[in-house]
Structures are given as structure tokens and as C-alpha cells.
Amino acid sequence: MHKLKYGSLTTLKYLTLIIGVFGALAPLVVVLFASFKDTMEYHNTSALTPPMHWLNFDNYVTAFTKGQMLTGFKNTLIIMVVAILGNIFIGTMIAYVLQRFRFRGRGAIMAAFLFAALIPGVTTQVITFQIVHWLGLFNSMGAAIVLYMGTDIIGIYVFIQFMDNISSQLDESAMIDGASYFTIFTKIIFPLLTPAIVTMTIIKGIGIYNDFYIPFLYMPDPSLRTISTSLFAFKGPFGSHWETICAAVMIIIAPTAILFVALQKYIYSGFTQGAVK
Q1: Residues in domain ABC transmembrane type-1 (predicted)?
Q2: Per-residue pLDDT averaged across 45-58, rounded?
Q3: Residue 177: alpha-carbon gap to chain centroid
Q4: Residue 39 and residue 186: Cα distance in Å, rounded?
Q5: What whole-number distance in Å separates Cα of residue 33 and Cα of residue 31?
């Protein structure tokens, strides 16, 4: 009886995993197959039918050239680098102050960050747009950079959890040697936060790379298209050419997939170390 119950649970476990894997990979497989098909083959075969010619890269060439995806990659890279550098620097400084110092209002600041995270972003879009327009950043990369640069409660908590493992005796020793708080932060604390910084860089970078809403709303100029809005540009003259759109999707997915496979150990280690306490 015990063996029968154990065997049933094991079967159910693996069946659930297989269904989950199929649900996660099926859309990607459909897009991959469609990206190698021509228009006739795409309309005359099912979505899960493999392409007849795996070396048909015409859709990729069309997507990359006519979609101006090179400009999209360049603009996305500029926004990502500037926004992530600012986000990491601001986030680590806030975490340093909140973790190392005890002052009146510290709890209120933490509560304010948590409260802000609970407010649905869509409810603040009108006032956010007005502020961006008032700053003169509308229709420029500055709008996206400023909005992405704002730190978030998840990043602060991750940095604080890492700082809990850094002994305060390092700070005290440096202060005895005459180091200022800024020197302690930049020379001691910041380098020791490298695993957390790598984790947050990956998470923030993927979020910026995949975001469509902010570039579409705040940067309507075609020369400012990011990789996500470049994909949207296929809607219209390429609206019925789904095989070209699928090729563009695969071009967009490739960099993030490669980075995730190469850096996944930093992502997992960052989350697990940040969740220990």
C-alpha cells in the first residue's frame, strides 16, 4: 500500500513537471518554427510542424534590416548601462545608510518604500507623465533613464541582507585609520556587495530590456526606438507577416537567453543569500 501511494505521488510529481515544461517551452518552440518558414508554409502547416528548411534565414534578415533592430539594440544598451549604474549606486547608498545607521525616521523610510511598492504603477502614470514633461525629458532617452534609475524595495532589501553579513568592525577599523563614511562605502562596502550587485544588474537589465510601456509612451521618435518598440514597429506593413515577427522575437530573445545561461548561478545565489535572514 505504501509503495503504491509513493509510486502514485512520484508519477503525479513528474507528470506535473512535464506539463509545466511543455507549457513553458511550447510558445518558444512555436515561435522558433515559424521564424524559419516562408509565408506559404506558415499558413499551410500547423504551429507545431517543424519548418522544411532550417537554413531559411530570410525572415531574420528582413526583421533585422527593415525593423532597424540595430538602432533598437544601441538605444536599449545606452539606456540600460546608464540606468543600471545609477540604480545600483543609489540603491547601495540607501541600503548602506539604512543598515549601518540608527536614526529617527529610519522605520518610516522603510515603510514608505514598502508602501510605494504596493501602489499599482498604473495609478501614478498621469502625474509621472506630467513630471517627465515638466522636466523637459519627453521624447528623449532621459525620460526612460530617470524612470528606470529609481530604486525599488526589492533591491534595497537584497543589499541590506548582504550588508548584514559584512562585519561592522571593518567600518570601525577604517574610521580609526581616518576614513570618511564615503570612503568606507566606496572602498570597503561597495566592493563586498559584488554578488548582490551582479544579481540586481541582471534582474534590472532584463526588466529594462523587456519593457515596452515606458519607451513606447515617453520616446515616440522613431530614432529613439528600443528593442521592444522596434518589435512593435512590425505591426502595420508587416502586420500579417507573422513569420517575420517571430524571427524578430527570436533575435530579441537570444541575448537574454545567453546571458541567463551564463550568469544563472549569480541570480540564484543572490536570491538565496538574500533570503537567508
Answers
A1: 73-263
A2: 86
A3: 40
A4: 56
A5: 6
For residue 70, which amino acid is it?
L
Contact 82, 208 (CB under 8 A): no
Pairwise CA distance, residues 15 & 21, whole Å: 10
| 144, 83 contact by CB (below 8 A) | yes
What pLDDT does residue 169 have?
85
C-alpha cell at 260: 541567463
Instruction: List % helix, strand, coil for the chain (3-state, nearest 5).
Output: 80, 0, 20
Q: Are 60 and 250 in contact (CB under 8 A)?
A: yes
pTM above 0.90, yes or no: no
pLDDT tens digit string along 172-207? 888 888 888 888 888 888 888 888 888 888 888 888
C-alpha cell recorded at residue 90: 543609489
Predicted confidence (pLDDT) per residue in 64-90, tens digit: 888 788 888 899 999 999 999 999 999
Nearest to 92 by CA among 184, 207, 5: 184
**Cα 73 to Cα 6, 48, 79, 216, distances in angstroms:** 51, 30, 10, 15
Distances (CA, A) of 263 to 14, 25, 83, 252: 27, 20, 20, 18
**CA-CA distance, 222 to 139, in Å (whole number)?**
10
Distance CA 63, CA 274 (A): 40
Burial profile 36-53: b = 16 or more Cβ within 10 angstroms, e = fewer? bbeeebbeeeeeeeebee
How high does pLDDT run on average in the chain?
A: 83
pLDDT in tens, 235-255: 665 556 788 888 888 888 888
Please name which of 183, 145, 137, 184 lies closest in space to residue 163, comparing C-alpha atoms. Answer: 184
The letter for the amino acid at 135 is L
C-alpha cell at 263: 550568469
